[in-house]
Specification:
Helices cover 45% and strands 23% of the residues.
Length: 226
């Protein structure tokens, strides 16, 4: 009887250990699944090129290197290619006499920029390059650009450097005479220059804030860190 009792006790103990091990495995499995789920929902999603296109952003297979430029910002300070280093730059070509596309785009850029976190804003600069430098002086841009957002940068300068810069970013513009006055027809794309100073992508018009946030996040997270 004594031996039989010990055997039963041992069996009971083994069963308890087996149950404990099974429960431990189940708990560990649940924890792993939860961690994987949390990681999935908290890790920014990297979109495929096709998904980026669907959301209005075209990313080049290889970023395009463009030549240096010398322009003036709306504070009268020299702006060269070096000022693209270290930040993501969104470059829009427009002019202050533009009646519709330019103010609409600048307002949309400002609204979108305000949705970015302070940390991302520090990594981002919004730039409007004038395609009408004859009328858009530093003083005019100093009134126009900060009206939309104090953080934005306006650029002007000589016509030829602006034209060369626009050509390198595949932005077309042309002067259209209207009687004694004129306007400027121009592309509404927004060029995206990466922190290395290379032409990385462009956003097709019109700007959609939700799509821009999604594609910008994806591009930032897929960009190799130095």
């Amino acid at each position: 009887m004594g031996a039989g009792g010990m055997t039963e006790a041992m069996k009971t103990e083994q069963q308890k250990r087996g149950i404990a091990i099974t429960l431990g495995v189940i708990v560990a499995f649940i924890v792993v699944v939860m961690l994987l789920f949390i990681n999935k929902i908290t890790t920014p999603r990297v979109l495929s090129n096709l998904e980026l296109q669907v959301h209005g952003t075209i990313v080049f297979e290889q970023p395009r290197i463009f030549k240096d430029l010398v322009l003036l910002d709306h504070k009268g300070e020299e702006f060269t290619k070096a000022r693209f280093q270290g930040k993501w730059s969104f470059v829009f070509f427009g002019f202050t006499h533009c009646p519709d596309i330019c103010p609409t785009t600048m307002a949309a850029l400002s609204s979108w920029y305000k949705t970015l976190s302070p940390e991302v804003q520090q990594q981002t600069q919004i730039i409007m390059v004038s395609v009408d430098p004859a009328r858009d002086s530093v003083e005019i841009l100093a009134q126009y650009v900060p009206y939309f957002n104090a953080d934005f940068i306006g650029l002007t300068g000589e016509f030829l450097p602006i034209k060369r810069f626009a050509n390198q970013l595949n932005v077309a513009f042309t002067k259209v005479v209207q009687g004694d006055d004129y306007t400027v027809d121009h592309s509404g794309i927004i060029a995206m220059i990466n922190p290395r100073g290379d032409y990385h992508a462009f956003i097709k018009p019109p700007l959609n804030a939700e799509n821009a946030s999604l594609t910008y996040s994806s591009i930032r997270n897929s960009f190799p860190s130095d």
